[in-house]
User: Fold Diphosphomevalonate decarboxylase from Sphaceloma murrayae.
Amino acid sequence: MADTTVYRSSTFAPVNIAVIKYWGKRDPKLNLPTNSSLSVTLSQSDLRTHTTASCSSLYETDTLLLNDSPQDISGARTQACLSSLRSLRRSLESSDPSLPALSTLPLKIVSRNNFPTAAGLASSAAGFAALVRSIADLYRLPTSPMDLSKIARQGSGSACRSLFGGYVAWEMGSADDGSDSLAVEVAPASHWPDMRALILVASAEKKDVSSTAGMQQTVATSTLFKERVEMVVPQRMSEMRRAVEEKDFETFASLTMRDSNGFHACCLDTEPPIFYMNDASRAAVRVVDAVNDKAGRKVAAYTFDAGPNAVVYYLEKDEEAVAGVFKGILGDKEGWEGEKGKGVQEMEAPKEVEIAAAKLKMGISRVILTGVGEGPIKTDEMLIDEKGETVV
Amino acid sequence: MADTTVYRSSTFAPVNIAVIKYWGKRDPKLNLPTNSSLSVTLSQSDLRTHTTASCSSLYETDTLLLNDSPQDISGARTQACLSSLRSLRRSLESSDPSLPALSTLPLKIVSRNNFPTAAGLASSAAGFAALVRSIADLYRLPTSPMDLSKIARQGSGSACRSLFGGYVAWEMGSADDGSDSLAVEVAPASHWPDMRALILVASAEKKDVSSTAGMQQTVATSTLFKERVEMVVPQRMSEMRRAVEEKDFETFASLTMRDSNGFHACCLDTEPPIFYMNDASRAAVRVVDAVNDKAGRKVAAYTFDAGPNAVVYYLEKDEEAVAGVFKGILGDKEGWEGEKGKGVQEMEAPKEVEIAAAKLKMGISRVILTGVGEGPIKTDEMLIDEKGETVV
Assistant:
């Protein structure tokens, strides 16, 4: 009798927001970057992808359901991940014939985000990290997170950093086959646990250019980009590692803001120019500058990915000075009603940012309060039942 | 009996808008730039400063009236111009004692712009060019426009380019004393007379950072700036000269847009970042991109100085495709009612720029239609009468 078992494994995986940005591929097929990058993994209580991977002879083909919508998985990126994982499983099976031949079974994967995908919140990083981690668990692969990060990287570059919690570097590597382009832990979340992040979600607006297309336009046309990848980022990477190791927030903040600005400068230097920051983003910059000026030291650091949302990093002890000022401006928006938001004391914004405050109010639709968090976490909460049906 | 003659001379001087931008000083005192720049002088029928310089023993001290407001002329920049001109006059007087000793007389200077100073339209360039040219005429200096440009440069860097009409380069020079940092004519207006410029004046908003302060912050902090001044601009300068000489609008347009974006990229890469472009500026970029896409060639080129105003260059033959589309979007704003604007046929904007068109409508308050024009022009229209009184 044929084995009709539904093999399952489930994981939660986090979002990460880079403080030294990934922008540009030296090999678009293998997702090999033009420079190393460094990120903070964010807490999964606020932002996470929950994925159940299953395989069974009951299934006909590989399928992926994301937030209840069937996804096309025939693309080269998803296929690269699936075939790498199957091939690792196949090796296990051939060395131990007692193992069930899971590598031959169709996969059914069900994935759900606890945050709106449309908000432009690095959902593909969490998505591919969860996909790779859950299938690796399903296959009981002994593969290290570093090696899994190489697989996730092929799905979405920044996904490799979501295989770890805390402070994570993606080492660009130099090998043509990508074998040394992987994520490593710079420090666990417990090393510097009081790092907070306030995300200002911009009102929905069509993205200027997808990051995949945009970064290769920059590589091809920006005259300033070479300086960034060859000279500027390598130095920032080593300074940022030291800042994290020494828990030196002022240096962390300065490097984070400079690198975000330098990345968007290269976008602007692209032909045609790419704009991700809008008037609300620039207003967030001005408020952070004013908050830092008022404090007389850097207590807050903004960073912007390929979109207008601001992520503002700060330490728990400076919550009032940072999140408090933003609550003073944006207190009527969604996102403050949870446990973390309720406790924030509203502060008055510095007078000189009156115009910026008005622009923030117009351009920001909600906030998310979060902080540094753990890497992927295995869970018994299954999105697929024992019969292979999606749990509603 | 003492000579109480009021000696007078009057000039009109033009605005210029750079297509290869000046940003950064290697010597802030002498206004020596970190890179050469190239500009188009704009027609004085639309934008000009009218200045009358006079000197007389009737006056007590040097004075300057701009748009009927007394100006402080004790600043180092104005003083550098006045003392250079006086010293040249003194030399003339000592070699020919029959000349009246104008160099010893107090100066009264009256200046008026035919456009709102507040609009952020490079008024200091026209202002210092008119100041220097009118005093040089008053003193009957045999000095060449190139030599006068060195004097005007000390007042306001970009003013040196307003000593010439047409297409003008400011050669950065290499001498420590600034003796080879001057403006030269690349081509007269008559060489390529069909160059038009549509200026989109952004709704009044406080400027982010003055260009004087901003450019030195960029020099001090931008990590990408060195590449711009050492590698990028020198190559663009030689390509731009060739484009002007060959009347190659497509190359002119491509270089103009890239250099504007590269300059603003360096502003963004400054710590703290400097933003001059706003959402309306970016909307203008998108409309120009769409106009070029639709034409299948570059018929329009945007450029932005240290503010949100867009200047869009195009050739007369493409008026409908360029100015027509902007009139279709901004037809209800001030500025189309004149002779040049009335004749422009309103065109429908490409569908894909619907959002950009809406942002332009919100952010632009008026337009100015102009084109390439002549350098300073001597005039008999005096703003000071024979008795030394200001003409109202």
